């Protein structure tokens, strides 16, 4: 039987994001580069960015004819230093985790944004690692930096594009057991991984610790969502929001290129998870517009909307 879907919306917020196309000799080394470059990038609360693999790319469609993957890196648009924050995230992650990965190269798949002036001169900064032996070249029909390294050469584009995106789309899966909630979440993650232009940045795509804005501790900007913690249901009494029979809740967070991409992934996740045995309810986190200005209704056929600038 299909789990009910609460007639509510997921509240997301706008981001600034960049994509990096990483290639390598084979899938093994590509996976190493991707895992390291997107590590410790689950939550904007304490990570420098939120990152993940948006898609894998067939060798026939990469600049150098090798296996590739498009990585997305998001920072919240509400940050005043958002462009610098994105630059620093890319600089650290590409230089420390892609340059260092045997056989890897890095390209920007955002040519239109570069042409429009929305770009970061990432290649020049990382090229300094060449210690004066780095050089600019035209290779593969692209303007690149070439850096001599022990393994041969590291090749990367000179500029990397960026643009506005969306982060924080979400779904909650309320299960009658820990297994039910986790199975529903895993099915949702598998569906989202097949959607174009989105990532699920948390470990394995899921967050087992959905947070609320603010805390009883003044030094924290976010904390556990006590009202939705099943183990606190008896302690909180009437303040608890956990429905009877729910023992565990898992959340998937979805970031993407635009609101339409995140909405499409949301509906794919719902369809994949709703038949999970033991799943009691599918809902989403929202904060009455205090967190974000992008809204995705959970009932498919409704229209996502945005407010403000």
UniProtKB/TrEMBL annotation:
InterPro entries: ForMFR_H4MPT_ForTrfase (IPR014053), ForMFR_H4MPT_ForTrfase_C (IPR002770), ForMFR_H4MPT_ForTrfase_fd-like (IPR023447), ForMFR_H4MPT_ForTrfase_N (IPR022667)
NCBIfam families the record matches: one_C_fhcD, PRK02114.1
Gene designation: fhcD
SUPFAM superfamilies: Formylmethanofuran:tetrahydromethanopterin formyltransferase
First-level EC class: transferase
Gene Ontology molecular function: any one: formylmethanofuran-tetrahydromethanopterin N-formyltransferase activity
Domain Formylmethanofuran: tetrahydromethanopterin formyltransferase Ftr N-terminal stretches: 4-149
The entry's keywords: Acyltransferase, Transferase
Organism ancestry: Bacteria, Pseudomonadati, Planctomycetota, Planctomycetia, Planctomycetales
E.C. no: 2.3.1.101
The Formylmethanofuran: tetrahydromethanopterin formyltransferase Ftr C-terminal domain, residue ranges: 152-298
Family classification: Belongs to the FTR family.
Identification of the protein by name: Formyltransferase/hydrolase complex subunit D
């Amino acid at each position: 039987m299909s789990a009910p879907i609460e007639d509510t919306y997921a509240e997301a917020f706008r981001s600034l994001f960049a994509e990096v196309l990483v290639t390598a000799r084979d899938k093994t080394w590509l996976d190493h580069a991707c895992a390291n470059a997107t590590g410790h990038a689950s939550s904007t609360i304490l990570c420098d960015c939120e990152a993940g693999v948006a898609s894998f790319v067939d060798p026939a469609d990469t600049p150098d004819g090798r296996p590739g993957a498009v990585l997305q890196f998001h920072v919240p648009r509400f940050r005043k230093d958002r462009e610098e924050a994105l630059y620093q995230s890319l600089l650290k992650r590409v230089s420390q985790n892609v340059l260092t990965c045997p056989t890897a190269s890095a390209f920007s798949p955002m040519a239109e944004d570069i042409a429009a002036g929305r770009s970061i001169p990432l290649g020049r900064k990382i090229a300094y690692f060449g210690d004066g032996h780095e050089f600019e070249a035209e290779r593969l029909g692209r303007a690149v930096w070439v850096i001599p390294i022990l393994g041969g050469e590291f090749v990367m584009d000179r500029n990397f594009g960026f643009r506005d995106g969306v982060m924080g789309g979400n779904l909650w899966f309320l299960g009658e057991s820990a297994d039910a909630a986790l199975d529903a979440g895993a099915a949702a993650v598998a569906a989202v991984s097949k959607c174009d232009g989105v990532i699920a940045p948390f470990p394995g795509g899921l967050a087992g610790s959905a947070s609320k804005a603010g805390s009883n501790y003044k030094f924290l900007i976010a904390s556990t969502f006590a009202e939705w913690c099943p183990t606190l249901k008896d302690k909180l009494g009437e303040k608890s929001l956990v429905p009877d029979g729910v023992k565990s809740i898992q959340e998937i967070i979805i970031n993407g290129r635009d609101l339409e991409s995140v909405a499409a992934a949301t509906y794919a996740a719902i369809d994949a998870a709703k038949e999970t045995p033991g799943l009691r309810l599918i809902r989403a986190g929202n904060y009455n517009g205090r967190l974000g200005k992008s809204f995705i209704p959970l009932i498919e056929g409704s229209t996502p909307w945005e407010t403000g600038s």
